[in-house]
């Protein structure tokens, strides 16, 4: 059996770490920048299919602007638009469904129910499906400079991370993040700064184990595999992976090839498997869904676990990634990413195992060409080792986000936030 000398790149390392009694110093958040006095109009609702199925992670974007958001796992959305832009149309897109354009003026402030029509199956041309998959991947990589930005840009994004022990939320963190996204050809890393942050962690529900997420928004930033192709597309990618064109689909009224990939049988290191959605006309990667192969589980778990107690045996039961790109002015930009990681902790001399689930998601809500490196560098930028859940801010102010677009919380998260708010009010009363 052949074993390739492959190591996961630095971007995928240390996504999570487990430790007991050890804390890192956290950079201080800079003072908030005063917001402009802009009148904001908010819209809430749900996006469903024409068969009444909810559509999670559908993208809603305001045409002629960079404003966008995504639906949550229950198809619900919250969209905030400056009053001066409410004359524009709202574009709603979802994989396998026809794009829908509706005037913002046709929406109500709440209770909107937006229905998308499923696309009819289109028999793909034989010449499309018969393309050599390796040639498609090579064209995708060769066309990066044509399909993605060759200029530095500023991205505003909403970031959320949750940690659950079984079905109980033990840590919630949400942030508005400013990301200095460099030219897609640049060898330099992107930079990130926290603009707004709120969080709550209940360590009493974590047993004797302090479970923390390391890296914060950088975990989402590095899932951008067109910006950081080394996660999958290394120089020996064709030695590591097998590729196969399996079908075509309609994405945003464009035809995309769906390419299945998985690691070759003789590769023993944990690599990835999943689907790549590649635009037929431009060969741009517009979406990717992939998992880490957990066959060699001990080696796979080492990627995520930095430290752990000696009496704990950790096993990774799921490591799943999604990345979506959005077409803006003929170039594809980071739109949304989601990471799901499940771990099982087997304690020595304990009868029951402990299960942890974490979800990390980030959605780009605005883009700007106004990049000032010096100003950004002078901010208290966060490091790649940041632990968001150790920040001191909590859930309290219902108007915390102001004009910023966020992802609507799922019911379970919303309930947890309400409980946290009640506890805060109770403590305030007791202290008074």
Summarize the structure in short:
By secondary structure, the protein is mostly beta strands.
List the helices and strands and how they pair.
Layout: E1 16-19, E2 40-49, E3 59-62, E4 68-70, E5 76-82, E6 89-93, E7 100-103, E8 112-116, H1 126-129, H2 133-142, H3 144-147, E9 153-165, E10 168-181, E11 191-201, E12 210-213, H4 217-221, H5 237-240, E13 241-251, E14 254-263, E15 272-279, E16 285-292, H6 297-304, E17 312-328, E18 331-347, E19 354-368, H7 373-378, H8 411-431
Parallel strand pairs: 2-8
Antiparallel strand pairs: 1-12, 2-5, 3-4, 3-6, 6-7, 9-10, 9-19, 10-11, 13-14, 14-15, 15-16, 16-17, 17-18, 18-19
Describe the structure.
The chain has a 10-stranded antiparallel sheet with strand order 11-10-9-19-18-17-16-15-14-13, sandwiched between helices. It has a 4-stranded antiparallel sheet with strand order 4-3-6-7, with no helix packed on it. The protein has 432 residues and is mostly beta strands. Strand 6 (89-93) and strand 7 form a beta hairpin. The model is unreliable at 1-14 and 19-35 (pLDDT under 50). The chain starts with 15 loop residues before the first strand and ends with a helix. 14% of the residues lie in helices and 39% in strands. The radius of gyration is 22 Å and the shape is globular.
């Amino acid at each position: 059996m052949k074993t390739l000398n492959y190591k996961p790149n630095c971007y995928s390392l240390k996504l999570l770490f487990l430790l007991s009694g050890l804390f890192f110093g956290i950079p201080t958040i800079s003072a908030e920048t005063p917001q402009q006095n802009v009148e904001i109009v908010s819209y809430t609702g749900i996006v469903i299919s024409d068969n009444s199925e909810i559509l999670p992670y559908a993208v809603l974007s305001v045409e002629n602007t960079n404003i966008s958001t995504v639906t949550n796992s229950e198809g619900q959305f919250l969209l905030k638009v400056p009053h001066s832009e409410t004359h524009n149309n709202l574009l709603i897109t979802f994989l396998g469904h026809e794009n829908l354009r509706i005037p913002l003026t046709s929406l109500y402030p709440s209770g909107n129910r937006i229905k998308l029509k499923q696309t009819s199956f289109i028999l793909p041309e034989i010449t499309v499906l018969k393309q050599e998959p390796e040639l498609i991947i090579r064209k995708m990589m060769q066309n990066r400079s044509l399909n993605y930005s060759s200029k530095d840009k500023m991205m505003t994004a909403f970031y959320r991370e949750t940690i659950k022990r079984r079905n109980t939320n033990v840590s919630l963190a949400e942030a508005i993040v400013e990301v200095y996204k460099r030219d897609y050809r640049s060898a330099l890393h992107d930079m990130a700064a926290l603009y707004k942050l709120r969080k709550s962690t209940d360590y009493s529900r974590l047993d004797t184990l302090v479970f923390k997420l390391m890296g914060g928004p950088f975990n989402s930033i590095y899932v951008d595999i067109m910006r950081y192709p080394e996660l999958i597309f290394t120089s020996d990618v064709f030695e590591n992976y097998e590729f196969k064109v399996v079908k075509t689909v309609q994405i945003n009224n464009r035809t995309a090839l769906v390419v299945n990939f998985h690691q070759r049988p003789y590769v023993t290191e944990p690599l990835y498997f999943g689907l790549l959605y590649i635009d037929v006309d431009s060969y741009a990667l517009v979406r990717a869904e992939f998992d880490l192969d957990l066959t060699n589980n001990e080696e796979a778990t080492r990627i995520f676990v930095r430290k752990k107690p000696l009496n704990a045996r950790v096993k990774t039961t799921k490591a799943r990634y999604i990345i979506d790109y959005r077409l803006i002015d003929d170039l594809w930009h980071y739109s949304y990413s989601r990471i799901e990681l499940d771990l099982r902790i087997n304690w020595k001399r304990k009868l029951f195992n402990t299960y942890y689930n974490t979800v990390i998601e980030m959605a780009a809500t605005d883009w700007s060409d106004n990049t000032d490196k010096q100003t950004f560098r002078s901010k208290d930028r966060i490091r790649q080792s940041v632990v968001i859940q150790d920040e001191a801010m909590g859930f309290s102010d219902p108007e915390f986000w102001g004009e910023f677009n966020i992802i609507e919380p799922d019911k379970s998260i919303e309930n947890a936030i309400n409980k946290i708010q009640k506890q805060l009010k109770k403590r305030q009363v007791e202290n008074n």
